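Self-study notes.
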Amino acid sequence: MCTRHVSTVRGVNGVMRQFIIAALARSPYRVVEVNARPAEISLADEVLICNALMPVVPVQRYGEQQWSARELYQFLAPLCESSD
């Protein structure tokens, strides 16, 4: 179940990160910035990474944790591709 709540781990305030946060601000999703530890990240429904070279990529596995949800990725991918 998606609660439409997006947490972002503080990181480099790059162009793609800014673009994604702005796009989410105009969407049904709510962005909350957090300082997450690995144990907290493992509780996420979906994990994505982004940068200017590969706009948005779903994380499939981190340690023993695996993710298969793609709702947020499917929402963001077309937006990120059109931002080139």
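Second protein, same conventions, sequence then structure:
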Amino acid sequence: MNPGPQLRRSLTFWAGLITILFICFAWWDSRSHITLVHWKQVEVNSTLHGLLISRIPPWKEPLHFRRRDRGPDSDLALFSPFDPPFLVRKKTTYEPHSTTRSPLEVNQQGIVDLFGPGTWILHLPYWLIVLPLLLTWNALLIARARRRKRSITHAPS
């Protein structure tokens, strides 16, 4: 039996493929653009090979969307596409900067320190989003293939 035609009609296959393609496009786009959505106190920012999810003071507008070019003098070369995830919070006491922190983490700590208490930024790199998505998608496709194979072998003749 040829699995091609059945896979082509699978909602699991197409939903996973479209989702992965969208996230890979966002990853690629984050190299040259900054895309930001701000709603109340939460801001989601697609930039520098990942998502920056922040809790910052609210803006005047309840919902704000912005997109802009990174520019020719971008510091993108400092950041790796495979930087680890991190969470930075507003410091209450002085702590010297660690030499093991990535340049992006040090940069974001400076931004958080400008705002009041309760401010934080979570960086989720796109590789950390794509990897579990691929594993889940493959597991669902394998489960679907086993279910189809079982239904074909147990089908009444």
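Instructor comment on the second fold: The chain has a mean pLDDT of 81.
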